[in-house]
Structure formats: structure tokens, C-alpha cells
Amino acid sequence: KTKTPKHDTVTMFRIWRRQISSAIFLEHAKGKLATANLAAIAAARKAGGEAVGVLAVDNATSPVIEEAKKLSGLTKVILATHPNYEKLLPEVTAPLLVALQKQHGFSHWWAAHTSIGKNILPRMAGLLAQDEEGIAPVADVTEVVDGSTFVRPIYAGNAITTVKTSGSINIVTVRPTAFKLDEMATAQVPIEEYKAEPAEMLTKWESEELSKSDRPDLGAATIVVSGGRALKSADNFKLIYELADTLGAAVGASRAAVDAGYVANDLQVGQTGKVVAPKLYIAIGISGAIQHVAGMKDSKTIIAINKDPDAPIFQFADYGLVGDLFTILPELTKKLKQQ
Ligand code: FAD
């Protein structure tokens, strides 16, 4: 089927003026706005033009509304309230964004490249693409060159590509660790209520199981201590936990350690795990496979402990310690505790 662009008047006007107007999808969970939203706002600011927030919540007393009012860099927040939005399921959230797009004719949509953002924005792009050519989401953006030029990693971070969009609507998810997160200001951002008519719930939220931890969150920690296959067992991973707790660090792991059942898979760092960029990353008994490195190479300082002096991880490390982790770790933790 040949698709013909069906722009509304507002979109046509903006295309003609080449004016940037951004909508930022504000994600939240458990009554709190996600910090990653700040990266999406920072990216939108880089593109220029005005930016509004879009917030979908289950009820009008949700505490995230008050948080959203304090987001600096937004001219207003469009608020849609309905019980169906409680879990931000993509089947009901994406049609809401499409309806807002049709009403406002934004040139850009931004969201953080998180499991929620990755779930919703591509679906929104798919729905818009049914009517219009040239709509393609740009995912995991690490740099905004201008309103239609974005930098993103490909091949597990082994190549960096600069892409230029040609469609009238740019739909972009941004890597949270790649953008400076501005502080929330105290300014009051006005709220504009949108009378939502949510799509039918095609899916149902059954339950979620979250692992509880007193340690810092892996994605936001300033120090991460990660262990690999060399730990040999879940029991031995306590060496990693002890070092991490001494440093106030989050714990990460290689996929080999996760697959072997030493730790839960939410600790996996890498191409198919979490992408982290802490101030300090300590890789212990991890060889440095490209898929692991893709998730940690942007860390400010990298320390590697490995008994093989030729392990690839040393090519990425700022400091390397060649030796047996079972000897080094107890000694290191003890010395750090004495400080
Ligand atoms: P190994 O490669 O086995 O390395 C163990 C290291 O420990 C070695 O360097 C060894 O010298 C050292 N060592 C052994 N004993 C000791 C000791 N006593 N003291 C000190 N050092 C010791 N991997 C990820 O981590 N994250 C991902 O997201 C990921 N995604 C993937 C996606 C795809 C599509 C594929 C194909 C693979 C992916 N992998 C990922 C797997 C990746 O290729 C590697 O297999 C994995 O990272 C290896 O984990 P490791 O370094 O712990 O184990």
C-alpha cells in the first residue's frame, strides 16, 4: 500500500517553519518519576525549541504530578489521568501519545532508553507509520548533533553511527548515562489536563517480582564492582559483595556469571544487560568480551583484576592487577576496611 503523508495543519506549519517542538514522555514507577527522564529533557534541550512533558498516571492525586511540576526545562506538562495508565503498558500508552501527536503536531518525541521507553516509543512510531511515510524511531541515542542528526552505538558499541532522519516526526530514545542530568528546579511548571479516552486494555498486568537490595542501584551507582565466571560459585560471590559493601558500591556481573546462576540476571552488565557508566568500575575475573565491554566502557575509571595478563579487559582498564582474585580480594577488602 502506498502511504501518503497526512499532516494536520499544525504539523504542516511546523514543517514549513522547520520549528522544533518537543514532547517528552515522562516515565514513572511506584509513585516516583524516573531520574532517567532528565536525560530525555537534556537531549531535547540540545535539539532546541520548546519542550513539554507528557505524563500519564492512574489518578489525579498521584505524587508524580507534583514531581513533574518541578522539572526544569519544560514549558508545561500535559497530564492524562486514567486507571488504565497505572503500569504504563505500551498497548494503552502508545495510542495516547499518538492522539497527543495528532492534536499538537510535535516535531520530536523523546524518552529515556529504559525498558519502559523502549517499550512505548517504537510502538508509537509503528502506529504513526501506518498513516505516514518516513517515521522510524531512533534508539539509544548518545549525542544530539541537531534536531535531525543523532549519534548512536551499533554492533554492541563497537561502532558509532551518525544518523539523519528525514521524516517530519523524530521519535528518539536516549541513553540515560550519555547525558548530563540537570538538577530539578523549584519552578512551577503548569499542568494542562488532557481528557484521555484510553484504548481498550489488551494486556493485563499480573504481577512483578523485584529483587530487594540495600546496595545502590546498578544503573545509578558511582562505583560498580562486577564479578565474572572466575568466581566459580554463588557462594564465592560473597567476596564481590564484601568489597562492594566496603566501597558503598553496586554489584554487577558478566553474563557467564549470570548464566551459571551465581547471581540474578538483573545484575548483568553488557550488550544484553545493563549499560553503566559509573565513576569507578572494578571488573574481577572477567575476560573483557566485547559484549561485556559494551556495557561498561564509558566508565570514568576502570580497574581490572585477572590472573591472565593477556586478558582483553586490560586493553580497556586504566589500572590492572594481575593475580588470583581469591588471594587479592580478601586482602584488598581488609585493607580498605582499615582505612
Ligand atoms: P570468561 O570469558 O570465562 O572469563 C573469565 C576470566 O576470569 C578469564 O579472563 C580468566 O583469566 C579470569 N580468571 C579465571 N580464574 C581467575 C582467578 N582465580 N583470578 C582472577 N582471574 C581469573 N556477556 C556479558 O558479560 N554481558 C552481556 O550483556 C553479554 N551479552 C552477550 C550477547 C550475545 C549475543 C553473546 C553472543 C554473548 C554475550 N555475552 C555477554 C557473553 C560474552 O561473550 C562472554 O561470554 C562473557 O562476557 C564472559 O564472561 P566472563 O568474562 O565472566 O567469563
TrEMBL record:
Belongs to the ETF alpha-subunit/FixB family. It comes from Paramicrosporidium saccamoebae. Coiled coil: none annotated. This is Probable electron transfer flavoprotein subunit alpha, mitochondrial. It comes from the Eukaryota. The electron transfer flavoprotein serves as a specific electron acceptor for several dehydrogenases, including five acyl-CoA dehydrogenases, glutaryl-CoA and sarcosine dehydrogenase. It transfers the electrons to the main mitochondrial respiratory chain via ETF-ubiquinone oxidoreductase (ETF dehydrogenase). Heterodimer of an alpha and a beta subunit. Residues 22-214 form the Electron transfer flavoprotein alpha/beta-subunit N-terminal domain. It is found in: Cytoplasm; Mitochondrion matrix.
